[in-house]
Amino acid sequence: MSASELKDFSRLAIHTITTKAWSLEECVDRFSGAGVKGITVWRQALEGRNDVAIGAAGARIRGAGLEVVSLCRGGFFPGKTEADRTKALDDNRRAIAEAAALGAPLIVLVCGAVPGIPLEEARKHIADGIAALLPEASAAKVKLSIEPLHPMYAGDRSAVNTLGQANDIVEQLRSPWVGVAADVFHLWWDPALEAEIARCAKLGALDAFHICDWLSPMADMLNDRGLMGEGCIPIRKIRGWVEAAGFKGFNEVEIFSQRHWARDPKDFLKDITAAYLKHS
Ligand code: ZN
């Protein structure tokens, strides 16, 4: 058996943002050519397309042998005024329609935070916002998956900063259409992580698993994520916890990196598949 036949990419998915210089079509062709089996589509890759065109994009993805893992992203629920919060809900309704047209089973939610809104109040806006979307989510058969973000983003991106907090919202809302997207970048530091992964799975809410690495030092808190193996996250150990809890979905490579984005995406893709085998 040759080395290439030993490569197991059956659970490897990549986010379109990871190779953001490429159009959706180029991502599909290149990912599929590299043997990748899943894709998470960021909404900017769909910009300018109506639902018919989004449906055609979904068909093209499946035709290339890739599974649509999720649509990224919805959320940003907290707002200082009722009008701000209503606007956010409208955008999430649009995201649900896009996910349905694309054939994506779930939307990843970056839940939001606004400087000046206390975190407790922001979490209430988040739970209320998700609850308000449940009729549309259930009608479209699209799950809303809360992605807890690292506490360094509590100021302006998400008031949900641990898997425990995400699990609490799942328990509070008690809907089969609410779940969680677990990302090692955001969660690796948490001493309660293994227990909360098990709790999340027990709730039937462990929907997605995102991988990359944590660089130290980090040049930019948003756009300096590492390729697996470049940093200090014990990815294999966390993947082990997720799989021990019963998760059978994709390992989704999601990397925002000015450093890697500056390279030829073809070379970056080669490094991603190699690092996936070696470090994930
Ligand atoms: Zn993520």
Key words describing this protein structure:
globular, TIM Barrel, 280 residues, alpha/beta, binds zinc ion
Q: From the alpha-carbon coordinates, what is the Rg to the nearest angstrom? A: 18 Å
* Unreliable stretches covering 5 or more consecutive residues: none
CATH superfamily: Divalent-metal-dependent TIM barrel enzymes
Overall residue-averaged pLDDT value = 97
Shape: globular
| CATH architectural type | Alpha-Beta Barrel
Major beta sheet summary: 8 strands, parallel, barrel
Number of DSSP helices? 11
Domain count, please report it. 1
Notes on the structure:
An eight-stranded parallel beta barrel has the order 1-2-3-4-5-6-7-8, surrounded by eight helices. It is of the alpha/beta class and 280 residues long. It is globular and about 50 Å long. 45% of the residues are buried. The chain has one domain (3-279): Alpha-Beta Barrel (TIM Barrel), CATH 3.20.20. It has helices at 3-6, 24-33, 51-63, 82-102, 119-140, 163-173, 184-187, 193-202, 235-244, 258-261, 265-279, and strands spanning 12-15, 38-42, 67-75, 106-110, 143-146, 178-183, 206-211, 251-253. 44% of the residues lie in helices and 15% in strands. Helix 3 crosses helix 4 (82-102), helix 4 (82-102) runs parallel beside helix 5 (119-140) and helix 8 packs parallel to helix 9 (235-244). It contains eleven helices and eight strands. Residues 147, 183, 210, 254 line the site of zinc ion.
